[in-house]
# Entry
Amino acid sequence: MSRITPAIRDRLRADLSAARAARRSGDHALSWELLEGAHVLSQPWAVWYVRVHGSMLLAGARAGDIREVGGQLVRLSIAGPGTVSGRYPVGNTGRARVPATQPMPIRGDLAELLREAGR
# Structure
């Protein structure tokens, strides 16, 4: 497993922080958009991948979304092993409303960061 690049690490930190701020200000749509992007970026790195799912779990709990909480609990249990084994759904946004194993297209800006990281 390769090390996370500074560009992706910095983007993940910024997006997770911005997602928290958006949630606190009541902009849940922006919060989820940032979390979904962070999810896509974090997939190749287990620690970050689990961390993003933890943030998604918290966002779901704060919103009182039982479906999201349940989905994130399942994803938290499989995210780390999935990354370590190389079996994760590339591009999947990580929300409970999306099948956990469904690959999805990667947004252009995120694809470029992953390409630069050799992913």
Remarks:
- The chain has one domain: 6-116.
- Helices lie at 6-24, 28-42, 46-62, 66-85, 108-116.
